[in-house]
Amino acid sequence: MTLEEMIMTGESKNLEFKVQRPKDSSKYMKSVIAFANGSGGRLVFGVDDKTRKVVGIPKEQVFGEIDAITAAISDSCEPVIIPDVYLQTIQDKSVIVVDIQPGRQRPYYIKSLGINKGTFIRVSGTSRPAGRDLTTEMYYEDEGRSYDNVVRRDLIVTSEEIDAVCAEMKQVAIQNAKSEFQKRSVKTVTKNNLISWGLLAEDEQGNIHPTNGYVFMMGKDEFLSMIQCGMFKGTSRAVFIDKREYHGPLWKQIENAYQFVLRNIHLGAKLNGIFREDIYELPPDSIRELIINAVMNCSFCRHLIFRWLFMMIAWKSLRREDFFLVSLSQG
After folding, report:
1. For residue 79, is the peptide bond before it cis, meaning its omega torsion is within 30 degrees of 0?
2. Which residues pair with residue 128 across a beta bridge?
3. Exposed, middle or buried: residue 82 (CB in 10 Å: 0-12, 13-18, 19+)?
4. What region does 56 belong to: left with phi over 0, alpha with psi -120 to 50, or beta?
5. What does the pLDDT look like over 176-232, one tens digit per residue?
6. Cα dihedral angle (39, 43, 47, 52), rounded to 10 degrees?
7. Running DSSP on this structure, what letter comes out for residue 259?
C-alpha cells in the first residue's frame, strides 16, 4: 500500500498525521514512544488528521523541519530512538515522513516525564500512558521472561479459596462438555495442578502465593482484567445502543461477553422435520472461539500492546449497519 493510499484509510495504530510540527514536541513524542514500544509506526507531517487532506510543508521550511524533528526525537527519548526521516511528494505537495521501528530496548519513555509517566503505548489510533505494570512487563518480555509467572509475594491464597477455585473450574468444565463421555472425562483440579500451571507458588514457609496469571485469571485486579462490550448505532462509535463491562473470573467474563453478542444479533429459525431449529446470523461457536482465543492468547504488550483493546469483533449485518466492539481492557 502506498503512502497516499494509507492516508486515505486514516489514522491507525501504526499511522498518525500532523498538519505541521507542533512547537511543543511532546505533542508528537508520545506517538514516537508508543510506536517504539509497539510494532513500529509512521508519523506524517503535512496531513490534516481530521480531513485527511494533504496540506504539505512549505518547501523553504522542509529541511529545517526535518532537522528539528530528528533532533527532538534524539534528545527527548530514552533509550535513544533513531528515526528514519525523509521527504515525500504527494499531490505535488511536500510531506515529511518519520518511520519508527519496533524497539529492542523497551520500555522507551520521554526523558522529561520519567519512566513512570513518560512511557506510552499505541491503542488503535491513539497513544496512551502505559502504566507501571505494563512498563514492567516490557522489561520481562525483552528479557525473555513472562509477567504472568511473577509471584505476588504480597498476596496469600488460603486453602479455602484454592478448594473453591478448583471446584468451580471443574464445574465449569462439566457445564461446557458436549457429551456425557466428555463430562465423565473431566478430572478434579487440585492445588498441585494450579502450582504446575504457574498460577500458584509455595514459599519456604509453606505459604501459597498467587502469580500475576492467577490474579488476572480470577479478575482480582478489575483494572487489569475486564471485558468491555459495546454495540453502536451506525458505523461509527458515536452512539451506544448497548454497553456492558464484565469483571470477575475469566470464564465468567467470557460467558457474559458471548451472551452479549448473541443477545444483540438476529435470531432466525428453520423447520427440520417437525422440529424448529434456531439459527443465529453469525455462528455461535465461532463467536465463542474468537472471544476465548483473544483471552487465552493475550499478552500484556503484544501486537497493539493491548491493555486497552485486545480484540475487536466488528461486522456489518446483512440487514443493518450497526456493529459490535468486544474488547479486553487490561491496564
Report:
1. yes
2. 121
3. exposed
4. left
5. 888 999 999 999 999 999 998 889 999 888 899 999 889 988 988 755 678 888 887
6. 10
7. H
Report the distance separating Cα 19 and Cα 46, nearest Å. Answer: 5
Q: Are strands 15-18 and 41-45 parallel, antiparallel or unpaired?
A: parallel
- Using DSSP, state whether 233 is helix, strand or coil: coil
- Band (pLDDT 50/70/90 cuts) for residue 302 is very low
Q: Quick one: which H or E segment has residue 270?
A: strand 267-272
| Whole-number Å distance between alpha carbons of 110 and 74 | 11
Average pLDDT over residues 17-31: 92
The span from the CA of 199 to the CA of 209, in Å, is: 9
- In 3-state terms, what secondary structure has residue 165? helix
* Beta bridge mates, 97: 44, 86
The residue whose grid cell reads 499478552 is 299
